[in-house]
Request: fold
Amino acid sequence: MKINKLRLYNYRNITAMELVPGNGANIIYGDNAQGKTNILEAIWLFSGAKSFRGAKDTDLLRFGQKNCSINMDFTAGGRGQTAAITVEGSVKTASLNGIKLAGAAKLAGQFCAVLFSPDHLLLVKHGPEYRRKLMDESLSQAYPKYGAVLDSYQRILKQRARLLKDVTMNTSLFDLLDVWDKSLIDYAAYITVIRAAYINRLTEHAREIYSGISGGKEKLEIKYRFSGGPTQASSRQEMREYLEQAVKKARREDIAQGRTTIGPHRDDLDITIGNAAARSFSSQGQQRSCVLALKLAECALLEERSGEAPTVLLDDVMSELDESRRAYLLNKLHNKQVVITCCDVSMFSGMADGEVYNVKNGSLIEN
Reply:
């Protein structure tokens, strides 16, 4: 899987740009606020995910402009394909091979990428939403149905929250709450079982990679933690039965708090290094190595699933890693298309081959 050509028009600070990346490493360097991350963000949108910067669609428009477009020619599934994303006002549309899609999220599974940004270095020591986001982004690419189910689940959570607040004023709404709970549990069971199975596979790869980074001196473990407490449920039916009891037991608390307290939106990952919680007891270097292992493991799983190596996007993270970790990362990404942004291109002086571009004021200058 690789990008053949990327074209941007009125995208953020970019008036017009065309990038034809090489099959291997592609280094995009320049000072801050010149447009490097904008390029990676544009590529990432074709994975079917939202902006990794948390941007609204209107934020993608060049200042003073009413529309923007992103077009990408890429190879996937053994054939050349084209995709386009446009934003007009507050409306974002997408197409694949000339066919209009219901939304940009429908691009999931067509073009796969793995993103490694500075925010990912916070994955271990910050809140559980970072770890849930890692799982959800990866699974939405590997299993497009997962993203659709997740969207439905999140809509039900919002609707149930409103109902939980109203039910104290109108007890007749309890019957309606039973109806919502059935749908909630069905979606939650699917999401939870898929996530747990994914984490088991991810851990196998991440454990091996972390061992390589640490020289075999430390052991990494990752376990899925259910918000409803320990469970041995492994199938969707078993998980559905488990969640039925857990949600029923939590109903009084849910009503008191006006929100759903049990479900995959509250689940987390327990990450340990050397039998100690990585969040509390690991050094900054260990935490960075852990994230590096997780992203490389994600890369491996996507390749297993699709049969093709995903494009790898590295947004200004090399400066956060020491020389040995940078070398390990680049070695693991051999034979993959990689797009790397950085401020200091000299850290890649030992790179055997690759393309190098300089970005200034939203314009790309090939070296």
